[in-house]
Amino acid sequence: MLTRRHFIQTSTALFGAAALPGILPSAASASAQGSWSKWDARVTPANYVPETSNPWGIAPRFLPTRVEANAGLRPGDIHVDAVARYLYFIEPEGTAMRYGVAIARGNLYEPGTYTIRRKAKWPTWTPTASMIKREPATYEQFADGVPGGPTNPLGSRALYLYVGNRDTYLRIHGTPSPRSIGGRASSGCVRMVMAHINGLYGKVQTGSTAVLYPSETYATAQS
């Protein structure tokens, strides 16, 4: 886990100006895969322009924006500023794509350094045992899993976060509740607008690093 000292030294002002968590891996059925294109179209606005399209009514600062990144950050990695609610995908040539996110509520957010070991389109969602124990009335009915689709809590894409070979059951994923972006809404994961993570998904390689920084208010980020 990241310490306060590590965070101050490595993440404050990293960048210049311009969910539900527990998921168990599951292969999509052939019939579901046949629906992916239709579902992608359903969650993508007509005449979509990432930097300006906003039928969800989220704050404009959470729309995808290319910004300058500090030197020394590795292209292909992801950095999540939990205070400003930004996810940065580091690009070559010193830039980053910035997206708005929602993070976990309360003490369910888990800062740390993770490896993205798996990716999935329109994944199945299954609540973890701890989620069911914590909120049985909400999650027990889904114990056998929820198939992928536009109303699935994981949305259209998911990036699976590991520590070593251990699945943390934390994800960066799309959400069918885009108005939650900018808030603290999930049970541990990092949420994105589905159209936004669809654009990010193809750029992210398995084996890359995702750094989730602490959410304490001493951190700062330029908007």
Overall description:
Helices cover 17% and strands 26% of the residues. The protein is an alpha/beta fold and 223 residues long. Strands 1-4-3-2-11-6-7-8-10 form a 9-stranded mixed beta sheet, with helices on one face. Strands 5-9 form a two-stranded parallel sheet. Mean pLDDT is 83; it is low at 1-13, 17-28 and 217-223.
Strand content: 25-35%
The termini sit apart by 26 Å
Mean pLDDT: 83
The SSE string, one letter per element, is HHHEEEEEEHHEEEEHE
Number of helices: 6
In percent, how helical is the residue content?
10-25%
Tell the overall outline: globular
Structural class from helices and strands? alpha/beta
Number of strands: 11
| Oligomeric state of the chains present here | single chain
Largest sheet: 9 strands, mixed
- Model regions low in confidence, pLDDT < 50 over at least 5 residues: 1-13, 17-28, 217-223
Strand order of the largest sheet: 1-4-3-2-11-6-7-8-10
Instruction: Please state the CA-atom Rg, rounded to the nearest Å.
Output: 17 Å
Question: Could you give the topology of this structure?
Answer:
Elements: H1 4-10, H2 30-33, H3 36-43, E1 65-68, E2 78-81, E3 86-90, E4 95-100, E5 103-104, E6 112-121, H4 129-134, H5 136-139, E7 157-163, E8 166-175, E9 184-186, E10 190-193, H6 194-201, E11 209-212
Could you give a short description of this structure?
This protein is an alpha/beta fold and 223 residues long. It is built from 6 helices and 11 strands. Mean pLDDT is 83; it is low at 1-13, 17-28 and 217-223.
